[in-house]
C-alpha cells in the first residue's frame, strides 16, 4: 500500500507546485491525521472549540518541519474534498504560527485546477477577510483544550512559503532519506 507521506514526491514542480494530502475538511470539526503506520487517515480528535476548518487542510509529502511533523498546508477550496484526497496546489502565502512553543507555520495554497483561484498568486491576492478567518481559526481552535496555547505570527508572501517548503524538504531529506 502506498504511504502518502513517504512514497509521493512533494509535488510535480516543488516548491512552486506541490501536492497537498487532505486530512481535515472545510466546514468540519473533525481533526483527522494521516497515520503512516496504517497507512491511512484516522480520526485524531474532534475539535473542542465550536469552530470549523476554514478550508481543506493537510500536509505535503516528503516534508518535515520544525515541529517534527510533515509540513502543514491549507488549500483554499470552494467545496470540501475528502480525507486522503491529493490536491495539486500553488503556494501563495505563509502564516507564521507558534503552537505550544514550537514553530508550526502554515502554507496557504490554492488548487492549480480551479479557475476561481487563477488570479491568486501571492499573499496580497488574499482578501483581508480570508486572512482574518484563517488567523482566527488557528488562534482559537485549541482554546478549550487544557494547557494548549497557539499564537499566529503574521503573514508572509509566496516566496517565503516556497522557502519554507524547501526547508521542510531539506529536513525530510536529512532525517529520513
UniProtKB/TrEMBL annotation:
InterPro entries, A to Z: Pyrophosphatase, Pyrophosphatase_sf
Keyword NAD among record annotations: no
Keyword flag Hydrolase: yes
Domain of life of the source: Archaea
Enzyme Commission number(s) of this protein: 3.6.1.1
UniProt KW keywords: Cytoplasm, Hydrolase, Magnesium, Metal-binding
Pfam families xref list: Pyrophosphatase
Annotated SUPFAM superfamilies: Inorganic pyrophosphatase
Annotated binding of Mg(2+) 2, by residue: 72
Name of the protein described by the UniProt record: Inorganic pyrophosphatase
Source organism of the structure: Halogeometricum limi
Lineage: Archaea, Methanobacteriati, Methanobacteriota, Stenosarchaea group, Halobacteria
